[in-house]
Design goal:
Layout: H1 11-29, H2 32-48, H3 51-61, E1 65-69, H4 73-94, H5 101-124, H6 138-149, H7 161-187, H8 200-235, H9 239-245, E2 247-251, H10 264-286, H11 300-307, H12 320-327, H13 342-354, H14 363-368, H15 383-388, H16 394-397
Antiparallel strand pairs: 1-2
Helix pairs in contact: 1-2, 1-3, 4-5, 5-7, 5-10, 7-8, 12-13
């Protein structure tokens, strides 16, 4: 009997109490009659004692485990390369500046190649790497989740049903991200294999899907990591360590499936049969001229007269109405007299009208054509320009090599082409010439 002032239960009864809690939790999901019977039986065992159950508890706590070979090297390399590629893609999209786009694209292509490899290796790899080894029916997944809620999930040597479902879901989301990424790259950026077939409006709409899938992926990754940690806690084995070494500790009573060596030659042949045509098709598509990017022939009078005072703005940066209004009032050109001879003014006006924003499908043309209602002639007053440059420090615009917000070519190396690719951005040193950085 416990003494007044402190409860000191024997260790065996403590173990029995823990088992009773687990069993009573299982009663909640069982039918009422079975639940009442089981609960009553457990209460009787707690009151009268159950030495056999206590002995079994001690034995279970000291259950012999062993290490088994689960994940082959290609599967482990795939996993960690995929982790790295996903991290790079997320960082370059959410944290890094726009001119890191090349890294984001490279991560996307890497993910696409890894997914293709895993599909093939899932057919020809070793035992637990094959897709068939963790293809469970929905009922099995639901049953496993029920046991997980009771904190008594069965032990699996390979992927458990919940983990397998998450893996297939991750593969589906990653595939969606790759496909939508190709479309966004082609439609919005006019780069990559879809640049010749995807318009800006289509790419801009798909961008919303791409962003949604990215946030969904982050939530799924968090759930996946939580599941891995919970599995390791419940089963006293580290899946992370197993994915590094290939060896996993499992209870000795679990049977290991018969060794199934990988079919390396078949995997190489099938992978080459899929990879080579896919790469060839992407290269051929990438050689197509970008949709909505006309081959502009610069006008000499425009380049000479406009470039004499400031950077000669690309015609695609303003709509026709803005260019017409600007050319009609050159004697008051932003406070200065920029009048031209009639013939020269007519030639420049015709050139600007021919290559105004309406004739281009680039991001700059489409978004900058939405001019500021109160200042429709000033490119730097457009809502998109302001939003795009909001994080640029004023010291950059004041740098000796920039001097003004309107000097596009100081930071955009491809400004003369009208593309304004993110990868072509190079911010100058804001420090004065000769000063220490």
């Amino acid at each position: 009997m416990p003494r007044r002032g402190g409860w000191r239960l024997p260790s065996a009864i403590c173990q029995l109490a823990s088992f009773m809690v687990c069993d009573l939790c299982s009663c909640i999901v069982d039918d009422a009659d079975a639940g009442r019977a089981k609960g009553g039986f457990m209460m009787r065992r707690l009151l009268v004692g159950d030495p056999d159950r206590a002995a079994r508890a001690v034995t279970d706590a000291k259950d012999v485990s062993r290490s088994v070979w689960v994940w082959d090297l290609p599967t482990r390399l795939f996993h960690w390369f995929l982790v790295g590629a996903v991290l790079v893609a997320l960082i370059t999209e959410l944290i890094a500046p726009a001119w890191w786009l090349s890294w984001h694209v490279a991560a996307g292509y890497t993910i696409a190649a890894l997914l293709l490899f895993r599909l093939v290796w899932g057919l020809f790899g070793s035992g637990y790497s094959r897709l068939a080894s963790f293809s469970y029916r929905p009922r099995q997944v639901v049953d496993y989740l029920r046991q997980l809620l009771k904190l008594r999930p069965p032990h699996y040597i390979g992927h458990n049903p919940a983990g397998a479902a998450m893996i297939f879901a991750l593969f589906a989301v990653l595939t969606g991200l790759v496909v939508t990424g190709f479309i966004v790259q082609g439609g919005q950026e006019k780069q990559g294999p879809f640049a010749g077939v995807a318009g800006f409006a289509f790419g801009n709409n798909v961008r919303g899907i791409h962003n949604f899938l990215a946030y969904l992926l982050m939530a799924m990754v968090a759930a996946h990591v939580a599941g891995v940690l919970a599995d390791g806690r419940l089963h006293k084995s580290s899946i992370i360590r197993a994915m590094i070494t290939g060896w996993k500790r499992v209870p000795a009573h679990l049977s290991v499936q018969a060794s199934r060596p990988p079919r390396i030659l078949a995997a190489v042949v099938v992978l080459a049969a899929l990879f080579v045509p896919a790469v060839g098709a992407l290269i051929l598509l990438a050689r197509m001229p970008p949709l909505g990017v006309p081959a502009m022939i610069p006008d000499q009078v425009w380049a000479k007269e406009c470039g004499a005072c400031h950077y000669a703005f690309h015609p695609s940066l303003l709509p026709r109405a803005s260019w017409a209004a600007l050319m009609a009032d050159l004697h008051d050109h932003f406070g200065e007299d920029a009048s031209l001879p009639p013939a020269a003014a007519a030639e420049v006006a015709a050139f600007l009208q021919a290559y105004a924003a309406e004739g281009w499908d680039t991001k700059a043309a489409r978004l900058l054509s939405n001019v500021a209602p109160t200042d429709p002639l000033r490119i730097t007053a457009a809502p998109f320009w302001i939003r795009r440059h909001r994080r640029i420090a004023p010291a950059i615009f004041a740098a000796p090599t920039v001097k003004a917000k309107s000097n596009c070519v100081a930071c955009h190396r491809d400004a003369d082409s009208g593309r304004f690719d993110a990868q072509a951005i190079v911010l100058p040193d804001p420090a004065p010439s000769g000063a220490s950085p």
